[in-house]
Amino acid sequence: MEQDPDSSDKALASDRQRRFRVVPVRYLLPNMITLLALCSGVTAIRFAFEARYELAVASVMVAVILDAVDGRLARLLKGTSRFGAELDSLADFVNFGVAPAILLYVWSLNSLHTLGWVIALVLAICCALRLARFNVALDDPNKPAWASRFFTGAPAPAGAGLALLPFYLGFLGIINDGHGWAIIVGIYVVCVALLMVSRVPTFSGKHLGPVRGDMVLPVLGLAVLAVVMLFSYPWEFLSIVSIAYLALIPVSVRAQRRLAAADARRAAGLPAP
To answer: Helix and strand tally (H, E) in the chain?
Structure first.
């Protein structure tokens, strides 16, 4: 039985359209920013091997900023996709797990030999576990509404920023030699790694509410001041932000427990205190 040549041509044309379908720009832009962040994170590793540590840390910070931009841009353009989510997780593992671990090993932890490498591995592995748990938690339909205000453990970008605190202090002259402080740096890095995979609630800035009209100018002023401080006094600013983040953890724990207790009282039909 001979096949109709017209139907064959139509099938080939349909197959060609499926293979070469047009992808909207709103899907491409967030993924391009994610790839730029990945390039920045991998470049940080190169700078570490060249002992250009300030550029290495700055490259990780650029990756942190780009990571904050790509997700918000995807939501703004309605360009979220499963592919973009997977790409973002893989890039985050390299940028905030592998790159900081190698930077810290080359700058300080290698003086501890095998133990230093184990500590670097712990940081990278905890980052991977943190990202995997975050991806799984996204599919949980039973989370209460207030749960979006908190992360479970430190998010990967914050964990990378905290892990690099010894670098900031080193650039300020407080830590003169990373190898001389290797034991203290190693203990601190392990604590940051455990914080990432812990159940400790930390504040999330992803779901901040709209700013009141009378607070717009003060918020804009603080944002501009933060940008100026970051470019003018980067290591002082990053040190203060890291220490403030650690200081806010008890506050976030208390806030999360208060909301959980109120939710439990409502579920039990008890009046609010």
So the answer is: 11, 2
Alpha carbon distance 104, 5 (integer Å): 65
Average pLDDT, the chain: 85
User: Is pLDDT at 51 greater than 60 in this prediction?
Assistant: yes
Give residue 9's identity as a one-letter amino acid code: D
The neighbouring-strand residues paired with 201 are 152
Name which of 71, 45, 79 is nearest 59 in CA terms: 45
Q: Are 162 and 150 in contact, with CB atoms under 8 Å apart? A: no
pLDDT in tens, 225-242: 888 898 899 999 999 999
Three-state DSSP at 269 gives: coil
| Cβ atoms < 10 Å from Cβ of 113 | 10
What pLDDT does 1 receive?
47
Among residues 152, 46, 161, the alpha carbon closest in space to that of 96 is found at 161
How is residue 37 written in tokens?
């962040």
Specify the CATH number for 23-267; select among 3.40.50.300, 3.40.980.10, 1.20.120.1760, 3.40.50.1000: 1.20.120.1760
- Which of 107, 109, 105, 96 minimizes the C-alpha distance to 193? 96
pTM comes to: 0.85
In this structure, the number of other CB atoms found within 10 A of the CB of residue 150 comes to 19
| Rg of the Cα atoms in the chain | 23
Q: Which residue has the tokens 């009141």?
A: 212
